[in-house]
Amino acid sequence: MNSTKHFTAFPMGKTKMLCAAGAALLAALAAFSLFTGKYPLTFEGMLRGDAMQLRVFWTLRAGRTAVGVLGGFALGVAGYVYQTVFRNPLASPDVIGVSSGASAGAAAGILFLSGAAAVTFSAFAGALAAVCLALALSALDRTGRNSTIVLAGIAVHSLAQTVLMCLKLTADPERELASIEYWIMGSLNGISGYSIGGNLLLCLFCLAALFLLRRQILLLSAEEGEARMLGVPVGRMRLLILLAATLAVACVVSLSGLISFVGLLAPHGARLLLKRDSAGTMLLGGLLGGVLLTGADILARSAAATELPVSIFTSLLGAPFLIYLIIRGRQRA
Amino acid sequence: MKKKILSLFLAASMALSLAACGSPADSVEADAAEKEAATEESAGEGVEETAEAAEESTEESAEDTAMETVYPVTLTDQAGREVTIEEEPAKLVSGYYISTSLLIALGLEDKLAGIEAKADTRPIYALSAPELLELPSVGSAKEFDLEGCAALEPDLVILPLKLQASADTLEELGIDALVVNPENQELLGEAAELIGTATNTAARAKELLAFTEEQEERLTKALEGAETPSVYLAGNSDFLSTAGSAMYQSAMIEMAGGANAAAEITDTYWAEVSYEQILAWNPQYIVLASDASYTVEDVLADPNLEGCAAVENGNVIQIPGDAEAWDSPVPGGILGAVWLSSELHPEECPQADSEAVIHEFYETFYGFSYGEN
Questions:
Q1: Does B129 fall in a domain?
Q2: Residues in chain A whose Cβ is within 8 Å of chain B
Q3: Is there a contact between A305 and B140 if contact means CB atoms under 8 Å apart?
Q4: How is B25-67 classified by DSSP, letter by letter?
Q5: What CATH number is associated with residue B112?
Q6: Mapped to the 3 state alphabet, what secondary structure does A227-289 carry?
Q7: Which listed CATH number (1.10.3470.10, 3.40.50.300, 1.10.443.10, 3.90.180.10) goes with A11-332?
C-alpha cells in the first residue's frame, strides 16, 4: 500500500498524529465515563448545586474515572518498559511477581485486617515485598544477566502463589474466600475519591521518572555490551527503571485487583501501529492502556444490573484488537 | 417420569460444566435445575402425605405410629440418590453446619460421633449441645476427611450437595450417606423430612416445620396492608455485595414486610453493586448480614453513603448472630423474618411478641434460653 511508504517516510509525523488521536479518544472516554453509572446525574442538577449529585460526581465517578485513565496508562507504560528492557514480547510486570505479591497481600489484608483502605495498603505492601525480593535475589548474581531477574521473578511468583493458597485454605468460604476471589478478579467498583490520593500521586511520580529515563530504557533494549559502551551503568539503571515501572503497577493493582491483558496488549498495539520503538511508542502504549481500561470499566458498570469484573472486558475488547493489528501487519508485509 | 428426571439431571450437569467457566450465575442455574428435579420427586411423596392427613382425624397415638419409620427404608436424597437404610442408625456423622443444627433440633445430638470443621464458630453448638465441640472433625466442604469419617464407623453420614462425590465413595465403603441441599426454606423442609424419616424422628421434624409455617402465617396476617419500606441487604463479605430477588435473604425481607431494594437483580448468588447504585435506590433501611466482616458503625461513617436515607435516619441494623445466622436457611431461619418485622413495623409486630417467639423456638427445639448467655 502507498500509505505505508508515505508513513514510514515521515515516522515522527505519524507518531504525533497517533498520540494525539489516542489522547483525544482517552479524553472522550473519560468524559463519557464521568457521566455513565447507576446514579442518574444531570448537567442541570449539578449546575443547580444538587448536593447529592455533586457528591456522587466527586467522590465516586471522578475517583473511578481517574483510576481507569491513570491506571490503564500506568499498566500500558509499565508493560512497554518490561517488554523493552527484557527484550521479550511476553514480559509484563507479572513476570517478577508483582500481581501475585499484591494478591497474597490483599488476601492477608482481608483475613487479618479490616476495611478497604487496609486491604489496599496490604496489597501494596505485598506487591512491594515481592518486587524487592525478586530484585534482591537477582542482584546476588553478579553477571547481571536479564535471565536472572526473570528466574528470580518466577521463584518469587510461585512463592507468593503458595502463600496465597495457604491463606485461601484458612479462609472462611462464605465470607473471606469470596472476598479474596472477588478481589483477584479485579474491579474499579468501590473506589472512592477519599482513598486513592496516595496511590495516584506515587503512580504519577513513577510515570514521570520513567518518561525522564526514556532514552536509557531504549538503550537497555540494545545489546548489553553496546549499552555499556554508550555509558549506561546497566545493572543499576535496569533496577531503577524496573522498580519505577513496578511501583506504578503496584499502585494501580492494590486499588483495583488484578487487571488482565492491558499491560501486555497496550504496548504491542502501540508497536504494531507505529512499527518502531521510541519514546512515542511508550506514550502511545500508555494512552492505549488508558483507553482500554476506561472503556472496559464503562462496560463493566453498565452491561448488567450488577457490577462485573473489569478483566472480562479488557480481554474481550483487547483480544480482537490485537488480532486485527496482527492480521493487518501481515497483509502490509 | 424417570426419563424426565434423567433429562433434568443431564441439563443440570451441563449447566454445572458451564459453571466451570467461572460465572456464579451459571452454577445457580444448575441448582435451579436440581431443585426442579427434587420437586418432581417430592410430588410422589405428596400422595402418601394426603393419605396421612386423612388418618389425622383418628387418634393422636395412631398418627404417631404412622410417623414411625419402618426399617429397612429406601429414601431418595436431595441429590437424587437412592439410599436404603437397614435399621435405625445409632451413630451419625454430619458434614455440614445446617444438617448438624437440624440434628440438634431433632434431638439427635447424643447420636452424633463427628461433625464438620470449625464447629467453634457456631455459637448454637456451645449454647445447645456443647458436647459437640469435643467431637472429632470430618473436615469441610473444601476438604472432606473421608478416612477420618470412615474410621468413626458411623451408621449414617449426612453431607451437603458439594460433597456428593464423597457420599458415593462412602456408599462404596458400605456406609450409608444422605446428601442434603438446604438452599432455601422449602429445600430445608425437605431435608428435615428426609433426615427425620431416616433417623425415625419424623414427628419432631413435622413439629419443626409447623413452627415455621405458623410464624409465616402470623406475619402475613399482621402485616396485611402495611407499608413496605425498602431494605438494602449488605452481604457478609462486602458491603457492596447484596442479595437479589431470587435469593433466600430476599424472601426473608418480604416476609418481614419490607421491599428488597435490589429486587431488580435476578442473580441467585451474592451480586456486586456500586455505591452509586445504592444511592440511586436510596433504601430506607440498610440491614447487615449477621456474619458481616464490618460493623454498623463502619456503614454509618462511610463517607460514600452520605445522603442515603437509611444512613441519614440511622436505620442501619445488623441481623443478630448470637445463636446462629438467621439470614441463612438454618432450621431457625424464620426467626430472621420475625426479628426484622419488629424492626420495620414496631406497631404491627411489637418487639415483645418477636422476642417471645424467638425464646419459644430455642426453648422447644434447642433446649436453651435465648439471650441469657
A1: yes
A2: 37-40, 51-52, 55-56, 59-61, 114-115, 169, 172-176, 178-179, 182, 187, 189-190, 192, 194, 301, 305-308
A3: no
A4: HHHHHHHHHHHHHHHHHHHHHHHHHHHHHHHTTS-HHHHHHHH
A5: 3.40.50.1980
A6: HHHCCCCHHHHHHHHHHHHHHHHHHHHHHHCCCCCHHHHHHHHHHHHHCCCCHHHHHHHHHHH
A7: 1.10.3470.10
Range of the domain at B317: 217-366
Residue B137 near residue B74, CB atoms below 8 Å = no
ipTM, 2 dp: 0.70
Nearest-10 Cα torsion for B270, B274, B278, B279: 180
Chain A residues with CB under 8 Å of B264 CB are: 305
Mutation target to probe the A interface, by most A beta carbons within 10 A, among B27, B275, B288, B328 is: B275
- Please, which pLDDT band fits residue B11 given cuts at 50, 70 and 90? low
Q: What is the pLDDT of residues A125-180, one digit of tens each?
A: 999 899 889 888 887 877 767 778 788 888 999 999 999 999 988 887 767 888 88
Sketch the domain layout of chain A as residue ranges. Answer: 11-332
Q: Which amino acid is at A3?
A: S
Question: Which of B200, B228, B243 represents a domain boundary (last residue)?
Answer: B200
Number of structural domains chain B divides into:
2
Tell me how far apart the 2 most distant CA atoms of chain A are, in Å.
Answer: 65
Q: What pTM did the predictor assign?
A: 0.75
Burial per residue of B79-106, b for 16 or more beta-carbon CB atoms within 10 angstroms, e otherwise: bbeebebeebbeebbbbbbbbbbbbbbb
Looking at residue A57, the DSSP 8-state letter turns out to be I
